[in-house]
Amino acid sequence: MPGKFCVSLSYAKDNSDKATVAFVVANAAVASDKDTLVFLSIEGVRLSQKGYGDDIHEEGFAPLKELMSNFANAGGKIYVCSPCFNKRKLDPNNLVAGATVVGGAKLVEFLSEGAPCVSY
């Protein structure tokens, strides 16, 4: 099934349940042959840093580190909100696989062709 799918995530350790479920859904989308994007904003941008989410493991789910790795290995893209990233003074040289720091225009471009988006 062709098409695009977006998952918008604004949480990290401040709501690890939402962070986990967002990547479960993203993995389902990319496994369904969707051009899949996870957009990290607000506190979610912290997940763009290697090692940050390694200790997140919600009961009943795979560890977040594994979910994120599987997503990137399947070709999923992670866009990281640049103003949110810069506000938190994160390291652009420490990005997880698949992550790119971008401005809001890149998200708008992805969504402009009618891609559905779910938010966590």
If you had to describe this structure to a student in words, what would you say it looks like?
This protein has helices at residues 16-31, 64-73, 82-87, 104-111; strands spanning 4-9, 35-40, 77-81, 99-102, 117-119. The chain is of the alpha/beta class. The protein has a single domain (4-119), classed as Hypothetical Protein Ychn, Chain: A, CATH 3.40.1260.10. It has a five-stranded parallel β-sheet with strand order 4-3-2-1-5. The longest helix is centred in the first third of the chain and has 16 residues, at 16-31. The two termini are 24 Å apart. The model has no long low-confidence stretch (mean pLDDT 97).
Supply Rg. 13 Å
Shape: globular
Largest sheet: 5 strands, parallel
Q: Count structural domains.
A: 1
What are the key terms here?
120 residues; alpha/beta; Hypothetical Protein Ychn, Chain: A; 5-stranded parallel beta sheet; 5 strands; 33% helix; globular
